[in-house]
């Protein structure tokens, strides 16, 4: 059992929790994820790791209440326990791993959308600790749904907040801001890392492809086992079939078949679809 040591509602229906999970906290790296199960009957929910504290032995997750399981999780309080907390799963983000030091010489722009803003944070934080300054664009529906602005102000060189309704910061989508930065402000980037809803990653990818800007996205398809056995997280990257849980979750955005990935994600919205997709493997 894994104890909830901190719980905060960041904005309506988006929660942050620190979970006591010493073994996971010891080896977690930015870009990796965990699969949680609230209780014996709960669904397995994959969540990207948003931070970790090796000394305290805690891992931070941020989630939106969408289905029964996330609602059940949100109903728990500090001191309560959850049944399973499996991880760290997947590969750490290449940009923060030591073996890929060449990536760190690049001028990087992060594009974070909605709840996907949270998993961008540990990457930017770790790069800052390594002395690498990066720009961050956050896109959200309105000021009321904006999360983690304060945290990002401390670690990003330049932070550009965009709201769909213009209630705060730049009025427009993240793609509008990226376009402005590149075409009007003449910013030059070597690498873009985008994390957020699939539709956002698709359009960021289309835009950066037109600029010839290398782009990495972190996919969060539905996952079942998280170990490459069930095939639920299948995605087509170039000519190859990959499993996001073991081959990813980060991939070269320009090679991803986003339309197929979105079709598969929507099939999973119903229990029936879920059954079909598993039978399809
Ligand atoms: P949202 O719908 O509020 O969108 C966030 C931002 O994305 C918008 O403000 C906008 O700037 C941009 N965006 C949206 N549609 C766009 C388009 N067509 N073109 C260009 N930009 C666009 O986001 P949300 O409701 O918080 O998103 C929830 C989704 O994020 C869930 O589906 C969840 O699965 C996903 N998510 C992904 C990750 C990941 O690791 N990739 C992590 C957490 C959540
Ligand atoms: Fe089963 Fe990836 S979740 S193969």
Automatic annotation (TrEMBL):
It comes from the Bacteria. Pfam families: DHODB_Fe-S_bind (PF10418), NAD_binding_1 (PF00175). FAD binds at residues 62-64. One of its GO terms (molecular function) is 2 iron, 2 sulfur cluster binding. [2Fe-2S] cluster binds at residues 230, 233, 245. Residues 1-95 form the FAD-binding FR-type domain. InterPro entries: Cyt_c3_hydrogenase_gsu (IPR012165), Dihydroorotate_DH_Fe-S-bd (IPR019480), FAD-bd_FR_type (IPR017927), FNR_nucleotide-bd (IPR039261), OxRdtase_FAD/NAD-bd (IPR001433), PyrK_electron_transfer (IPR050353), Riboflavin_synthase-like_b-brl (IPR017938). Binds 1 FAD per subunit. Signal peptide: none annotated. One of its GO terms (biological process) is pyrimidine nucleotide biosynthetic process. Keywords: 2Fe-2S, FAD, Flavoprotein, Iron, Iron-sulfur, Metal-binding. CDD domains: DHOD_e_trans_like1. Its cofactor is FAD; [2Fe-2S] cluster. This is Sulfide/dihydroorotate dehydrogenase-like FAD/NAD-binding protein. The lineage of its organism: Bacteria, Bacillati, Bacillota, Clostridia, Eubacteriales.
């Amino acid at each position: 059992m894994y104890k909830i040591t901190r719980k905060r509602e960041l904005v309506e229906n988006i929660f942050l929790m620190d979970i006591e999970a010493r073994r996971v906290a010891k080896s977690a790296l930015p870009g990796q994820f965990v699969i949680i199960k609230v209780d014996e009957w709960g669904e397995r929910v994959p969540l990207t790791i948003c931070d970790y504290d090796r000394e305290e032995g805690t891992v931070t997750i941020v989630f939106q209440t969408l289905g029964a399981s996330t609602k059940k999780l949100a109903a728990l309080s500090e001191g309560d326990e959850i049944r399973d907390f499996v991880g760290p799963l997947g590969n750490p983000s290449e940009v923060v791993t030591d073996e890929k030091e060449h990536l760190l010489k690049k001028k990087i722009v992060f594009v974070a959308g909605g709840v996907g803003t949270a998993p961008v944070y540990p990457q930017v934080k770790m790069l800052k600790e390594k002395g690498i300054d990066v720009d961050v664009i956050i896109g959200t529906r309105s000021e009321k749904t904006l999360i983690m602005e304060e945290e990002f102000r401390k670690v990003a060189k330049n932070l550009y907040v965009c709201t769909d309704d213009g209630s705060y910061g730049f009025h427009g989508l993240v793609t509008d801001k990226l376009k402005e930065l590149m075409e009007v402000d003449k910013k030059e980037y070597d690498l873009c890392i985008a994390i957020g809803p699939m539709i956002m990653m698709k359009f960021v990818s289309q835009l950066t492809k037109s600029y010839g800007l290398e782009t990495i996205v972190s996919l969060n398809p539905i996952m079942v086992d998280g170990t490459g056995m069930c095939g639920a997280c299948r995605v087509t990257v170039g000519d190859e079939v990959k499993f996001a849980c073991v081959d990813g979750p980060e991939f070269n955005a320009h090679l991803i078949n986003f339309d197929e990935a979105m079709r598969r994600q929507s099939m999973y919205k119903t229990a029936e679809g879920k059954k079909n997709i598993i039978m399809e493997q």
